[in-house]
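Why do we care about 3D structure at all? Because function follows from shape, and shape follows, mostly, from sequence. That is the central idea of this module. The next example makes it concrete: a single protein chain, its amino acid sequence, and then its structure expressed as C-alpha cells.
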Amino acid sequence: MQKTLTTTALATALALGATAASAEIRIGASVSATGPAAFLGDPEAKTLEMLVEQINEQGGINGEEIALTLYDDGGDPNKARTFATRLIEDDEVVAIIGGSTTGTSMSILSVAEDNEVPFISLAGAIEIIDPVKPFTFKTPHTDRMACQKIFEDMQKQGITTIGMISGTDGFGASMQAQCKDVVGEYGITVAADETYNPTDADMTTQLTKIRNTQGVQAVLNPGFGQGPSIVTRNYRQLAIDLPLYQSHGVASDGFIELAGAEAAEGVRLPGTALLIADQLGADDPQKPVVDAYKTAFEEKTGTPVGTFGGYANDAFLILTDAIKRAGSAEPQAIRDAIEATSGLAGTTGIYTMSPENHLGLDLSAFRMLQIKGGEWTVVE
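And the structure:
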C-alpha cells in the first residue's frame, strides 16, 4: 500500500514517519511547503505526492511500490537537517528529494553525504553541486548559468553597462556573486550595485540610485520571493525606461500576479519549457514530458503548473529512472545510476550527468523569456 506522509509538525512527523517501514522502496523528501518559501515547496510537495500515486497505480518500480515520507521544513535549515537525519536513521529511506531553498539544501546535503545516501536538490545555487559531492545532485539550472544566459541576451542587444539590485537572502547573494564573477566575459560592466533585505517593502531608494548612475543601459535583479515583485512595481512607479531582467528564481505565473501584469510588461528572464508549454513545437524533445506533467498536475490540483513543481517532477524522474536501471534500491547503486543518467528529458531540460557534472544541464536548457500582455513569450 502506498504511504504518502505530509506533516508540518515535528511530533506528527515522528509518529507518521515510522509507518513507512513496510514499503519495499522508501524515499524521503523535505520541502518548504509552508513559510516564506511556500511558493516553491507547496507545488513541489504536491508534485511528489501525485507522482508516487501515479507510479504505484502503474505497479511501482520493477514490481515494487514506493512509500514517500514527506516532511515540511518551513524553509528552516535547522529543521531540514533534523528531517534529513530522521529520514535516514528512522525512516530508512534510500534517497532524498528536496531542499526548496539553498539554505535547506546545504543542510540536507551535509547529512546525506555523511550517510552516503543520494540527495537530489531542488534549489538553484551553484555551491550545491560545485564542487561535485559524491551523493548530491540537483535539477534546477545554477545561478551562474542564469547569469550567463542573461548576459548572452544583453550582449546581443549591445548592452555594455548595467545596474544590479540583489536580494541579500541565500539565493540573491549567491547569484549576485556569480553574476559579478562572469559579467566581464561578456564585455559588460556593473556600474551600480545595490541590495535589499528579504523583508523590505520598498526599493525606490536603491532603484533611484541606479537610475541616476551614468551610462546604465539595463537593470538585473538577482532574487526570489516577494522582493523581485516589489522591485518590478517600484521600477514602473519610477518610470525607469530601461530593460529589466529578473532571475529564474521568479519564473512562475505567481511573479506576474504579485508584480502586476502592467508593471511586469517587458521583463526578461531565463526560464524553462514548462512556462511556454503551449508554444513548444511538436518535435521538441521536452514536449511529451512537459505536456504530461502539466496535464496531470493541473487536473490533480486545479492550479496552474509552474517551474518549481517541475523541479520536483524532474528529480522524481531522475530518481526512478536510476532505480529502474540499477535494478536495485541500494543507495550506492542508485547513486551510481543517477551519475550515469544520459539524455533524460525533463520539464527543465535534458539531463546528462557524469562524475564531473551532477546537474547535467547546459545553457541550451534555458529559454530566454519575456512577459507580454501578462503571458510568457519566447525571446526570438
